[in-house]
Amino acid sequence: MTTTPRETPGGTLRVTPNGTPSEAGSETPGVRLVGDLVSRIPEFRGVYENHVFRQGGVLPHVFFWDVVQDTVRSFLGEAPDAADWRSTLAFLEEQSCRGVLGVDEVIVTSFLGDLPSPQEPGHAIVHQLGPVMAAKFVRIRPLG
Predict the structure, then answer these.
(1) From residue 113, how far is each of 38, 44, 105, 125, 141 by CA, in Å?
(2) Kind of pairing, strands 4-8 and 21-23?
(3) Cα dist from 87 to 55, 70, 96, 129, 130, whole Å
């Protein structure tokens, strides 16, 4: 597989032929998770490109704030052009099943932890989580 390098403040950003981003020397599980999400759900490409431009590289926890916002807006029917929330939850459930520490850290801390609270619009999305993510959600937020 051939990659195209481009210098960034955090190192060299490499983009594979199919457009999947990766940072040379910093391919952490969280960075890989972001790349896999963008590859699987192309509606996140614009969010990704804005993120890399603003941050100078991939910061998975920061990127996932936007993923949460777009996913909840999709769930509420407020963002017809956003990625379908079901696809996002299915992808994250698959990733959660793998048991990769760096992936779980990003999903639990920066996705599940940032879902709406019971009094906020969109909280019902927590009832749509797959079994692995639902169990992790209950552990970090037992009151919802």
Answers:
(1) 21, 20, 10, 13, 8
(2) unpaired
(3) 26, 12, 14, 11, 12
What whole-number distance in Å separates Cα of residue 65 and Cα of residue 111?
Answer: 7
Q: How many residues does the chain have?
A: 144
Token readout for 36 is 């896999």
pLDDT, tens digit, for every residue of 53-71? 999 999 999 999 999 999 9
Report whether 144 contacts 120 (CB < 8 A).
no
Q: Is the pTM of this model over 0.70?
A: yes
DSSP 81: T
- Angle, helices 60-76/45-55, rounded to nearest 10 degrees: 150
